[in-house]
Design brief:
It contains 4 helices and 7 strands; from the N terminus they run βββββαβααβα. By secondary structure, it is an alpha/beta fold. Helix 1 (69-90) packs across helix 2.
């Protein structure tokens, strides 16, 4: 059985585990965190959003940014995770990858994965299990090679 890397992540923390086989116990090999994830959007800047007038009335509205600072911070952290996974793959740290993350952050990570790293993904768990014990993670992992497929 090839070496399997598991990344369990959310917008604030990522934990990397290695599995020597599907029956083995996951072993933590690294951890990353993003302190900016705990900030509110208002903490990223001191200015209020701009104001705009309607074209046919005298009403004014605040201009909301489409890309909130917290989303940009999450995308930056997803890029850091993807970079770490890409580096580990190139160093032959793993051959197969299991991604465990809730849908919004998982899609941010997948957008940052290189083609070669994305090709290593064999299983995904659409849950946020970062703060769960490793036993709970183990319950969501595949137990047979038939369950592993390129995603």
């Amino acid at each position: 059985m090839s070496r399997i890397r598991i990344v369990v992540a959310d917008q604030a923390e990522a934990i990397f585990y290695d599995l020597s086989s599907l029956k083995a116990h996951p072993i933590e090999v690294a951890r990353m965190s993003d302190p900016a994830a705990h900030l509110h959007d208002r903490d990223f800047s001191s200015d209020r959003p701009g104001r705009s007038y309607e074209s046919f009335r005298k009403a004014r509205h605040a201009i909301e940014g489409e890309n909130e600072p917290s989303r940009r911070a999450a995308a930056k952290f997803a890029k850091e995770i993807a970079g770490r996974l890409d580096l580990d793959r190139r160093k032959k740290g793993y051959e197969q990858l299991i991604v465990v993350a809730a849908a919004p952050f998982r899609s941010l990570m997948r957008a940052e994965f290189s083609t070669d790293t994305a090709a290593c993904i064999v299983y995904e768990v659409p849950k946020d299990l970062v703060h769960s014990p490793v036993e709970v993670l183990r319950e969501h992992l595949p137990t047979t090679a038939q369950e592993l497929q390129s995603v």
